[in-house]
Amino acid sequence: MKVGGQAIIEGVLMMGKNISIAVRDNKGTIVVEEISKKTPTSSKLFKVIFLRGIISLYYSLYYGIYALDRSAEISSGQKMKKSETVSSLLFAIALAIGLFFILPILLTGLVKSLKGKEFVFSLVEGLIRLGLFLLYVYAISFFKDVKRIFQYHGAEHMVINTYESNEDLIVENVRKHSTIHPRCGTSFAMIFLIISVIIFSVLGSLIHLDIFGKIISRVILIPVVVGFSYEFLRVSARGSRFMKILTSPGLVLQKLTTATPDDSQIEVAIAALRKAVGEEDKTDHKKDNEGPEFFG
After folding, report:
1. How far apart are CA 153 and CA 147, in angstroms?
2. Which of 102, 198, 242, 287 sits in a 20 to 30 Å window from 38, CA-based?
3. 115 lies in which domain range?
């Protein structure tokens, strides 16, 4: 069984046979909950090439947001208001669209020498988008709360690496493994950005669009880029030397989005994975090639 995960507030979400979370509450107790029995592979559409990437992204976002809210409640001991969740989600969406789609186009539009050169315009725009993303990740890495989440992100990867190595899920074994994992959402984000440069550059060479048209086309084509990026990530996870070279930027970026966890954080990640896969699972975890690819 292939598994995936995501760091949340003082905890970890894991996806295997089900989707579960483990969070350390304000008293120091690990609270473990199953939040859904549905996973991407439970959908018949998951077998459809390109479409399965969108399905996996949906699960990643939908249950990831729910898990973040639930982890905030457990860790703080306070109930979250739905209005706060909705407003935070709307703000995050607006920020993402503004920062990674509108701003790159507007900045590129300031370069008058690129007027009429659609392919070059799209290429420069994509490189600016990539630069803004890297700058954003670097900037938030200095926040104390984000650093804690990055530690749980590292714990999630270490535990999954241990599981896929068919080793017992105990802290001593987990400590031997890397905080880097090829199916990480960070790697997917890098692949997404790089492929978006290619797709939008080709589109720019074929169709002339004004600034507004460029913004709309970028948003509309997000599912297409997701589909291509997901399939690329699936192939890259098989480990050929050529694919490792192509995906190396995402692996390097994980050095920034993960941090070495302490034993208490590893214990939380272990609890989440055990709940997600079931204690009785004794299969060879490296053989199954189905399952979530960029969750976490």
Report:
1. 10
2. 287
3. 4-277
Q: What is the pLDDT of residues 214-265, one digit of tens each?
A: 999 998 999 999 999 988 888 776 666 766 676 788 888 999 999 999 999 9
Length, in residues, of the chain: 296
| DSSP class per residue in 148-159 | HHHHHHHHHHHH
- Per the domain annotation, does 287 fall within a domain? no
| Residue bearing tokens 């896929």 | 164
Interval 39-93: pLDDT, tens: 888 888 888 998 998 998 888 888 999 999 999 999 999 887 777 778 888 888 8
Residue 286, domain member (yes or no): no
| Residue 123 to residue 285: CA distance in whole angstroms | 40
CA torsion sign for 62, 65, 70, 75 is: positive
If one counts the domains in the chain, the total is: 1
DSSP calls for the chain: ---EEEEETTEEEEESSSEEEEEE-TTSPEEEEEEES--GGGSGGGGSTTHHHHHHHHHHHHHHHHHHHHHHHHHHT-PPPHHHHHHHHHHHHHHHHIIIIIHHHHHHHT-GGGTT-HHHHHHHHHHHHHHHHHHHHHHHTTSHHHHHHHHHHHHHHHHHHHHHTT----HHHHTTS-S--TT-HHHHHHHHHHHHHHHHHHHHHH----HHHHHHHHHHTHHHHHHHHHHHHHHHTT--HHHHHHHHHHHHHHHHH-----HHHHHHHHHHHHHHH-TT--S-TTT---S-SS--
Sequence-separated (6 or more) residues with CB below 8 Å from residue 225: 192, 195, 196, 199
Q: Within a domain: residue 29?
A: yes
pTM for this prediction: 0.87
Output the six-digit token pair for 223: 């599912």
Parallel, antiparallel, or unpaired for β 19-24 and 30-36? antiparallel
